Amino acid sequence: xxxxxxxxxxxxxxKSTLLLQAAHNYRxxxxxxxxxxxxxxxxxxxxRIASRIGIGEPADTFDASTxxxxxxxxxxxRGPVACVFxxxxxxxxxxxxxxxxxxxxxxxxxxxxYGLRVDFRGELFPGSAALLALADEMREVRTICHCxxxxxxxxxxxxxxxxxxxxxQVQIGGxxxxxxxxxxxxxxxxxxxxxx
Length: 196
Known about the structure:
CATH class: Alpha Beta
Number of helices: 5
CATH topology: Rossmann fold
Distance between the termini: 49 Å
Structural class: alpha/beta
Number of strands: 10
CATH architecture: 3-Layer(aba) Sandwich
Mean pLDDT: 89
Low-confidence stretches: none
């Protein structure tokens, strides 16, 4: 039975690596996959999902105007698809998450979404909020804080090296400015104080 999955984490946890490995596993068994990524994230080149460890695959792109149900249906019209993989799911709109849910329900294809849960301010991305509400299954991809605890938050450092409290929710290509932290150390960074 097809399901809508949401694999979420903070920055640099290996979400894209897991997506690429899972897609490879399908193809290795002779099953076709369909890969999608956000058009605005072109760090690895336009229409490419890539991992920090050096692996990558071409993918179709989506933007705010893309009807993902129609995109998946059009791809399935060209041949069988065993699974849809979507990277940078935090950039989906609520309507697009519903479109993916409809693809699962009406087309019978599993959809695996990978993305960030919260931004540097500790707020949910719209796509992530919708996926948390609608996904059939959610899986946390874990990474660790410098203290060894599970990292669930991320700070964005400004030019002065301090944690930013304000700014645009989306900043593409700023991986070196982001640091994944546990909630306690995120609070220390954001509040600018040392907790006991």
